[in-house]
Amino acid sequence: MSKNVERGDPVRPRAVLFDWDNTLIDSWPVIHESLNATLTAYGLDPWTMDETQARVRHSMRNSFPQLFGDRWQEAGEFFYRRYAAIHIEWMEPRPGARDMLAALCGAGFYLGVVSNKKGSFLRREADHLGWTDFFGAIVGALDAPRDKPAREPVEMALAGSTIIPGKEVWFVGDAGIDLECAANAGCVPVLVRENAPQPGEFDGCFPVWHFDDCLALSKRLLRL
C-alpha cells in the first residue's frame, strides 16, 4: 500500500536514492550483534534489539564519540572487525528489493545509495548480492566530507549524472535521518516501512510518501 501524506500531484523523479540498511537489506541482526559485542568489550551494558533499532541511526564518526568517549576510534575498529566477520553471511535482502531495483533500473530511473554504513562494507555487500550495476553511485560513511543527514552524500551520489538535488530526486529510507537528509538536500522524502508515520513523529521532516514495502514503491513509481 502507498499513501501520499501531503497534498499535491506527484512528479515523476529522474533519480531515486536509497538508504541501505533495513530499506534494501535486513541488517538489524548483524548490527545488533556487532554493537553488543563492542559495548560488552568496553564495559558497557548490551542493548536490547528494540534499543538498537531505536538508537542506531547516525554514522560511527557521529555516534561513537558519545558512547565511547576518547576510545571511540578503538571501539570502532573492534566493531568493524566483528562486523566484517559476519555481515555477508547474516544479511538478507528486504522482500521485493531486488525485483524493485531491476524494474526501476530497466525503466530508466537513475538509482543510487546513500548510507551511514562504512563505504567499503556497503560496496562489498552490493557486490555480493549482484546489485552493484543497478546503481550509478554507492555512497557510504566517510566517502563524503560529512555523513548523512548532511547533503554532501546526496550530491556525491548524483555527481555522475546530470541530475541535481531537488524535486526530481526521491530519497527513500526507513528512518527519520533519511527524511532529514532528503530535506537538507531539497529532495522528496519517502518512507518505506510497514508502520505508517505518526503525527509529530518526524518533527518537520515528515515524508511526502509512505509505502509499506519495496513492491508498493516500485508499482507507484512505474505508474508515474
In words, what does this structure look like?
It is a single chain. The chain folds into two domains: about 1-25 and about 90-224, HAD superfamily/HAD-like (Rossmann fold), CATH 3.40.50; about 30-90, DNA polymerase, domain 1. Strands 1-9-8-7-2-5-6 form a seven-stranded mixed beta sheet, sandwiched between helices. Strands 3-4 form a two-stranded antiparallel ribbon. The mean pLDDT is about 95. The radius of gyration is 17 Å and the shape is globular. With about 220 residues, the protein is of the alpha/beta class. The chain has nine helices and nine strands. Strand 5, helix 6 and strand 6 (about 135-140) form a beta-alpha-beta unit.
